[in-house]
Amino acid sequence: MEILQNIIGAMNKEEARHFKLFAHRTNEHEERKDVILFDSIRRSLPAYEEDVIFHKLYSAGEKNSFYRLKNRLLENIGRSLSLQYFDQNDSSYILNNVVLSKLFHRKGQVQTAYFYLGKAEKKAKETESLDLLELIYSELILLSYETLEINPEQYINKRKENRNKLNKIQEIDDILASVIYSVKILENFSKSNLKILEKLQEKVNEFAGTKEFSNNAQLRFKIYHAVSRILLQKEDYPSLEKYLRSTFADFTKQKLFNKNNHDTRLQMLTYLINALFKNNKYDESLRYAEELNKAMGDFNGIFKDKYLFYYYNARVNNYTKTDVDKAIEILNEAKENEVIKKHPYHIVFIYLNLAVSNFDKGNFKEALKSLLKPSMHDTYKILDAGFRYRIAVVELIIRYELKDFDYIEHRMKQIKKEFFGLYKTPAYARVKVMQSILHRWMNSKEIHKDKKLKPLLEQLLNNKAAENKADHDIINYNDWVQNKMTG
Fold it and tell me: What is the CB neighbour count within 10 angstroms for residue 318?
């Protein structure tokens, strides 16, 4: 049950302490196997060995009792977290009041149930939680069956009005979900995906000029998510920067940001930081990075852990352009940070950036050491195959600088076998060309006279598309090849 390890591994000290208090609310002095299991998993992560823990708790026999214990522990952790955070945000507060209303409805205490639904409706209207208002109005209409004191007509009309607003937002949501999914799984949109993007743009244009748009904060945030995704997918960073500056300023001036959408505020800052970086505005990007860092502390740092990596990454990206030594210093700090270390994917990117930064300084041995570090981590095996292919070719480049030619010959055979399925995929044509160039360099006595090398170099260097794709290289192939050819 990996979900149990994942949940326990993600719990902070306060959540762990609260769970133990919750578990010991009865039989306080009795040794509890669920608490022993909890502590054992927490201490042993990430190297969780189930058999060791099983034999510690049950000396012999089948594992059925152990599996039941794990299920009970999972349920109790869920109850503990729900209790700890039931009023942590407005959505939790609203849902808790709905749950209490349903409880008293079942008990036949209609007035009490109505009271809690009233509290839920008030907060849902304040926060424009249209999806929760749909639930609340449905519950109020059901409650009207039990008493003459509740007129269902007013809630039927409210539900209709709310549903019209909700439908408009969900239209954006549906298309946006398709766009986001496409962005995640594809490097380039196909024609069908472009149609989805165009449809999203149409919806944005349809709602942007309406009165409903200006009066509805939730819809405005949905529009923001849609527009930013469109511009990101188009890689139109000048327009993205302009849009984010304007939107962030408007939302701030109109005091739309609050605890419920604080995550979106931090995301907007992160997008703006990255857009400024892409537009070569490094100093300004760094200034916004510090604004992000400050904002991460708001609301008791509720999203600080989530955005800490992006803060480090923003500083590293900019300093790699202006002060590589400073970038390396930040990376070395980041890899020791306990929050970063909890996320294996983040650690992979930290070491990859260390490798690139050291490569840029000509510290090739250090670059290789950093590049190989993530491959020893269990997470590396489940990384996207295309990403691992790119990393493998970077290793070949570093090995070439170290003149480790025997290893390169051996590793190229492994790469061909491991990533052969990607060779005919257009998204990885550039990586394959770089690999082929290295192979020709390895086997050519005079590379300037090699007739097979020339078309490969032209394919890599001599067109606008290649220049644009160079932005996605881990190490810029164009710059490195040109330096080697002229050096």
Answer: 23
Q: Cβ distance 397 to 480 under 8 Å?
A: yes
Tally DSSP H helices, then E strands, for the chain: 27, 0
Q: Which residues contact 195 (CB under 8 A, 6 or more apart)?
A: none
Exposure class string for 8-36: b at 16+ Cβ within 10 A, else e: beebeeebeebbeeebeeeeeeeebbbbe
Q: What are the tens digits of pLDDT across the range 114-154? A: 999 999 999 998 888 888 999 999 999 999 988 888 889 99
Nearest to 73 by CA among 35, 26, 18: 35
Query: Which residue's structure tokens are 């424009």?
Result: 128
pLDDT in tens, 266-308: 999 999 999 999 999 999 999 999 999 999 999 999 899 999 9
Asked if 97 and 120 count as a contact pair (C-beta separation under 8 A), the reply is yes
Contact 447, 441 (CB under 8 A): yes
DSSP-derived letter for residue 128 is T
Integer angstrom CA distances of residue 96 from 18, 83, 274, 283, 373: 19, 10, 38, 46, 46
Q: Model pTM?
A: 0.63
Query: Nearest 5°: phi and psi at 45?
Result: -60, 145
Q: Which long-range contacts (CB under 8 A, 24 or more apart) does 133-141 make?
A: 133/158, 133/159, 133/162, 133/166, 134/159, 134/162, 134/163, 134/166, 135/98, 136/94, 136/98, 137/162, 139/98, 139/101, 139/102, 139/105, 140/114
User: How far apart are alpha carbons 1 and 77 in whole angstroms?
Assistant: 14
Query: 74 and 3 in contact (C-beta within 8 Å)?
Result: yes
